[in-house]
Prior knowledge:
CATH architecture of the largest domain in chain A: 3-Layer(aba) Sandwich
Strand order of the largest sheet of chain A: 6-7-8-3-9-10
Number of strands of chain A: 16
Bound molecules: adenosine-5'-diphosphate, magnesium ion
Largest sheet of chain A: 6 strands, mixed
Radius of gyration of chain C: 23 Å
Largest sheet of chain C: none
CATH superfamily of the largest domain in chain A: P-loop containing nucleotide triphosphate hydrolases
Oligomer: heterotrimer
Number of helices of chain C: 11
Amino acid sequence: MEVGTAARQEAGEALSVEFREATKRYPGADRDAVERLSLEIPAGDICVLVGPSGCGKTTAMRMANRMVEITEGDIVIGDRSVRDRSPAELRREIGYVIQQIGLFPHRTIAQNIATVPGLIGWDRARAEARAIELLELIGLEPELGERYPAQLSGGQQQRVGVARALAANPGVMLMDEPFGAVDPINRERLQNEFLRLQADLGKTILFVTHDIDEAIKMGDRIAVMRIGGRLAQYATPAELLMAPADGFVEDFVGADRALKRLALMRVSDIDLWQAPLAHVGQATGEVRAKLHGAEVPYALAIDSERRPLGWLSDADLRQETVPARPDTSPDPVLDERDVMRDALSDLLQAETRYAPVVDGEGRIAGVLSVEIISEFLTSDEALTEEHSAAERPLG
Amino acid sequence: MSVSAFNPQASVFDSFSGAVDFIFSPRDEVGVGGEVGGLGQVAEFLWTHVWISALALAVAVALTLPIGVYLGHRGSGELLAVAIGNAGRAIPELALIALMIAFVGVGVLNVTIALLILGIPPILTNAFVGIRQVDRDAVEAARGVGMTEFEVIARVELPLAVPTIMGGVRTAAIAIIATATIAPLAGVLTLGDFILNFNVYGDDGLLAGAILVALLALVVELLLAGLQRLLTPRGVMLQREAARAAA
Amino acid sequence: MVGALVSVVPLAQGDGFFRERDEADCVQSNDTVCLDWALDNADRYVSPTLEHLLLVGVSVAAGLVIALGLSVLSHRRRWLMPAFLATTGVIYTIPSIALFLLLLPISGRGTTTALIALTLYTLQIIYRNIVTGLANVPDAAKDAGRGMGMTDRQLFWRVEMPLAVPEIIAGLRIATVSTVAIATLAVFAGAGGLGDVIYTEGVQAGVFKTAIVVGSAIAIAMAIAFDVVYIGAQRLLSPWRQVRPV
Ligand SMILES: Nc1ncnc2c1ncn2[C@@H]1O[C@H](COP(=O)(O)OP(=O)(O)O)[C@@H](O)[C@H]1O
Ligand SMILES: [Mg+2]
């Protein structure tokens, strides 16, 4: 999705959101659905509420726009308590996206998007222009504005749901399992599009999911909740994976949490192996000598710019000099900025043990092997030490 | 003319108490001649009204239900079922009886036929729709466990369609009872005779007839609603209650 | 009563009333439908037809207004809904002719009584359809509307009611077509209409076949015409239902 000028024109100022011992007990229930939840979400961050089904995520989120009335405690948006606001007025300033989307079947896509602008009294021309702008922002043809929801695919409808929530330029967005009803391939695409959009929009987002992988991918901060709406841990994704607060979080994050950490690392974060390098035209004898005791038992041919050309086979090595076209292709060639999880997946897909890693200019930086990754996963380091460069991957 | 002028001076209460009096005790005919009203005559007309309606309904159900169920099961003939349902609503009951008198003749047999014709559309449409609406997954599952088509109908579709089918039967019953009220035009003396022959029964008789017909319809409706409850499987009842609670 | 059905057609007796002798003969003998006579005397069916249209139009319109009012009330106070459904259902169960007559001591003979009875009849169908239409509005659309800051009133009039329009029109369609048929019985409340043609001029006047056929035909044609109009209105008022889903 192309993020154009429309995104940059967004002026809705992101506001911080703070839960202060917010508690909800439904009438007739014998325990709290959400119990004394305290969370501080800095302006412009994505905070993911995650936890098993029925633990109170939706309830917690809906207290923020008073779709659910707070029983005790408070929620403060910017510097104003939601309890002091009229619900309708408050909700018009907060974007709202739900799993079932809830587009109005009797209104066109453009009319759907222009719902909140209509409620707050924008004139028609402005609301229409805004709808078209948002259609472009979410990567849909402006012509689709004339259609009815039934004429759009599920993925398109979900995008429209997001656009509708953005229409009046809210500073805060509530998203309840927004990609939960989409198939896995489209979900991944929607997540990536949304993260790119958010990079430009910088909204404060409260994002609910029951899927820990989605939480790790989307969240700047993750609030893990346990049944009864109690907060089990509130941390960045990396902290959560490295240091689960207790057995519940550890179980919820999963036995594969080390594996999940790969989603947070880049190839450059790990110590790579080195293969014997062979320049084109070099005598093969020198290369054969280097192979003894090397970390990688194959030699990699490189050109004058140190770009990998391929792996040398035994036949290649029986020639006088290193050929310009080695028998074995170097693929997959990985970028050291790649996310580690994707790099592993490339390796496994190509059914190869080694892959050359290059830097930004395409020059050889080292070799990644399945063994390196598996050693990393079994080391204490994977679960304890914070990697300095572990920034969140953007797609 | 057998329409009442209704004395505007008489209070509403007087009118209705006069009607009740008419039902319970015989009195002199308005014109010349014998006695009218009283429980004896009421019972006689009521009996005719009930049996001719019951007969017409029974025959209508026997003729129509199998066809509606079969069409619904096969999923064909939707246009026919819907068209007959619509046509049934569009034909005035008065026109049906009047046309019958004019072109077929009067008498018990003709009236019974006219009444059963009137009962057919709602029974057919509801049987079709009821069977059609049965969850296709349930039907597929029934075939999957090896039921024959007949067993699928008898054990799955019919039980699940009971509420809709009975809805059609109730509509038909009420339409038949209502139309049987004008059967005296064709020489069959039902409760409607009190209504149609004002010269004989007077204001009190007219109102008494209206009360009796209304009560009869309500009682039959209640009885059929009870029958529907008996026939509806418990699971279907619970499902409907849950859906209602959610709405 | 059958006994009273002597074949006398009082209307056919004035002299110079008929343009052709054989038309009058047809009426006198009354053994077939006198189409020529009916056409020549078409004007005598105009006012019963207009009366009938008035009965149907007014009672369906009043029924719609009252049913909408009831549905707004029962939408705010849910406990009213079963009460409304039961009450309108009981009224609907009372055979129409009985209802007309039960009202006589209260509202007297004439158009008012007929309109009250017919309106009460339409209520059940229209109200039930509005309730169904409102119940079928997707929960997600309601939740989204509320979540975007619609007030209850805005949600009701901008989302719920428009989405219930197809069911409401379906209800109006059934109500109108049924009322065209039932209104023939308004003759027993002294309110005229096509029942006057079928019953007073037909059955009572010695089973005059022409009147019975013409009155019935106009009533059925009127029902069909309304049906067609409603199908058109349905298309026009719910464009989102006409689109083909992907
Ligand atoms: N409207 C409601 N009335 C009563 N109980 C509710 C309501 N909504 C949710 N609950 C209960 O509150 C708890 C938390 O629900 P919810 O917030 O929907 O959980 P989650 O979104 O994490 O699945 C559950 O036990 C649920 O049954
Ligand atoms: Mg939830």
